[in-house]
Write the structure tokens for this entry.
Amino acid sequence: MRPGKGSPWARQEVQPLRLEDIADRLGDRVDDIRQDLDGQDDVAVVDAHDPRCDADALLIATRKGILVAYPWSGTGGDGAGSAPGWVPWGDVRASTVTSSPGVSASRHSCTILLRGVELTALGDGDLGRRAVDAFHDEVVRRGTPWHYPS
């Protein structure tokens, strides 16, 4: 049997989170992010962690590439050096998605490599899994069909 609809190993299409899905959580910071998008439509959004500056980030995938925003950081995410900002698809890599069981919900993650800067896409529970899976799928779909490390 060929993989496809109805086969046990068929991949389910996962609907990504969009800025509108998390606008309430972002509050008035969503307007700054929309301005930084410079007219580009978001196709997937995921929470991430930047270990260089121990800051929470937001990765926003567009057709142009990925915008890295630090809406919860007073430093703009540049505490350990310059933030990646806009990263074109050719400079993006993703590890496979991993899941680890937690006390209240499973944690899902994958490493996103942006021009040599590693950020960890994170999500908890079913909604988090949806966000991480869909973002990972966008990275692979948008011209980065290999994983990091290769």
Summary: Residues 33 and 39 are 11 Å apart (CA to CA).
